[in-house]
Each structure stands twice: as structure tokens, then as C-alpha cells.
Amino acid sequence: MTTVVQKVRLGVLGAIVLAVWAALAGCTGHPAPRADAQQYYIMVFNDSTPGADAAYNACFDGQRIPDARTLPGFVSAQRFQLNTPQMYPGVSVALPQYLALYQVSTDDLPTTMAQLQRRAGATGAGACPGANPTTADVYAYRFSAPRQDRTAPDPKVPAGGARTDYLHVVFTVPQQAMKDQFEHWYLTSHMPQLLTRPGFTSAQWVALAQSQGSVPPTNTAAVYRLSLPTSMSVSVDTERRAPGAALSEAGRMLDPTLNRGYTYRAIGPVVPAA
Predict the structure, then answer these.
(1) Which of 31, 68, 131, 184 has a Cα at 20 to 30 A from 52?
(2) CATH of the domain at 151
(3) What is the pTM of this model?
(4) pLDDT in tens, 40-50
């Protein structure tokens, strides 16, 4: 009898251990990431084929985002659409109309990217009906500095009421002569200055970790979030240097031919981890 009881106890204990292990592994066979694992933004840009917007969006909202929530280390996701107007006018390098922004926490980015592509990808097995496979660009950027939040009041933006959220992604390229000073200047001067503009709420500096697609990314980028009353439009930065005028601080630091920004309007809420 004692032997039978011991066997039962061992069997129960083994089942508990397996259940805990499966939970920690996210039921994928991979260990859960550490609490202090590296944070990433994974930017999935894509277009739909002509006439397929409704099917594409229904699939992404109803299947792909829920699929992504099952990934180990998933933090959040949100979908956006290219906005009119753009805050950064005159950009000649086009990006697709739709952007899905995932935040993940992982110690194994290649595995996470492969799982995301299988479950919620822009191309291949994870692609939604109506997705245009020729316009998919996927960038993984590592958080490389603490997030900055707005601290100054925003007197030009009324509080309350219906609001629209935006994501403004700036792919940053320094002037070669300023390369060594660029990141420090951007984080301590330029980014805080932008966070005083109407609607800006936060900024995250990131460094390229992995990419695929036809539009090459830059080595660093800044990801800004904005929130404005629905009745207000984003402010267009139309500053242009007059012939012969001295370069501004930003003009001295940023390469105007390669630096480029894109404003996307939120078309869905922030979806947190389950």
C-alpha cells in the first residue's frame, strides 16, 4: 500500500512540475524570458491588395493580433495606418499603408521573430488574405535608451473629449561629421525639444537588431507617441532653410537627404498581454 501511495504522490508531483514548466515555457518548448530581458519594437509594415482592405483588416484584428499575444515575452501590440498629413513632409522613400507595432521582451530575438512570422507574419504562412507580399517590411529595433515622457504642459491641446492617437517614427541618420556626437545630442536636446510640441506624449530611442524587406531601415530610430483631440490635425513641420541662412542645430546634426519620418494614425487600441 505504501508503495502505491508513493507512486501516486510521485505521479502527481511530476504532473505539477510538468505543468509549471509548460507555463514557464509558454507551451512552446522555450524558456520564458527573464524579467529583465531585452525590450524590442517589431514593426510590421504592409499594404493590402486593391479592394481587399476590409478582409485584410478583419484578419489582422481578429486573428493575427490575438495570435501574437500567445508569443512568449509578448508585451503589447497596436495597429496604425499612414496618416494625411505627414508631420515630416517631402520624404521620397515610401513605406506601406499599414503598420502593426509589437513590443516584445526576449533573450532570443531570432526565435521570437520566427514565431511571430509563423503566427502573425506579414508574408508566408502567417499572412492575412489580401496582404500584398511585395510590400512587406519587418524591422526589429532594440530599446537602447530609457523612454522619455512629456513633462512640460501642453497648453495648445485641450484636455478631454474624443482623441486620436498617432505614432511618428523617425529613421535617424547623422551628418558624418557629427556621428560621434549625434546620439547624445538627440537624446539630451532634440528629443526633449520635440516632447514640448503639441500632442507629443512619449519617445523611445531604438537601435536596429534585425530586418527584412525591400526598404532598408536605418541603424537608429526614434518612436514618438502623440495624442490629440480628434478635431485637431497633427502639426506639419514645414520649416525650410532660406538660401544662405545658417543651418539650425538639427540641420547641423541630421543628414537631410537620409533622415526621414512617417506619421501613422492608430486604427486600433493598444492590446496588452493576455
Answers:
(1) 68
(2) 3.30.70
(3) 0.85
(4) 999 999 999 99
